[in-house]
Amino acid sequence: MNITHASFVTLPVSDQDRALRFYADVLGFEVVADLDLPQGRWLQVAPKGAQTVFTLAGPGMGGFEPGSARGIMLVTTDVDADCARLSEAGIAVDGPGDQPWGRMASFADPDGNGLMLLTEAHH
User: Fold this and answer.
1) For residue 50, what pLDDT band results from cuts at 50, 70 and 90?
2) Which of 17, 44, 63, 107 yields a CA-CA distance of 20 to 30 A from 28?
């Protein structure tokens, strides 16, 4: 096996424009690709400099159920500040709370895809 990294994670959304506003304006992700393909709009976003990007897959892009993604872990240098920003943007946040592996919180995108924020513990 010669796998080096994950290229993208699919986030199924019902409205790509709404999802893009959330990921770009609220989370600060950059647009990596925005192309009109025969099967639909190919829209990808990612944190600046990230190797793994997120495909915001709209209806018709593979039969995904909008909001069905779970357990997407985003690492942050300051989970508390990011949670405050999410709350100010009207996003419901569970946490942050301390875990053995770091300080963590969870929230959902406008479609209900489950995301988590983690500031890793330094041992």
Assistant:
1) very high
2) 63
